[in-house]
Amino acid sequence: MEAFKFFRGAANHLARGERLFARGKDNPEYYFYSALELRFGIESRYREYLENQKHVKEKKKQGWQIAVLGREVEQAFAGCKQEVNLKIVAGGFPVMLCKYTPVTPELKEVGERLGNYLHAPRDSDLRGLEQWSDFEQLLERGLALLRYACSGNLLGVPLRQRGAKQMNVYMSVHDDQRAVINEILERKIEMVIEVSYAEPPQL
Which domain holds residue 80? Predict the structure, then answer.
């Protein structure tokens, strides 16, 4: 395998994790590889949230422990654990809808629990069908929650420093969306950003 063909990022880890989980239905050893990709995906999503935040020190962006990354993200976004919806209005018309979908506390907990399965099993581990069923359900739940966390295109909670007029917004956009924003800026059309908050959906 050529190194450049291994695609990084939370969405890619999610896609591989889902494929491996499907194969685990017939061959349970694939569940362990799915668990690893799920664990990587949670870590990657946390890092994607942190990497563009200029007020976060570089050292804090390099962590790998789920619990530590979770705390750093929470501190970076002033404790916000909610979904954030952002509507960009230009010339009186909505031109783009954006969304921040967090790594929920439940997904963070799943990531921490996965560590129990990513070490060499002890004699008492995964001996009965009930234990395998618990593992399968944990993976299925975690993949669903990571799918939600990866569904938003805002790479963090929109922030505005106290007393500042500008709001810092980081997002992943398609080429056509980038073209629309550039056109608005070039024409100097007034933009209004409407922000609303909601609890993450019950999946």
Answer: 3-198
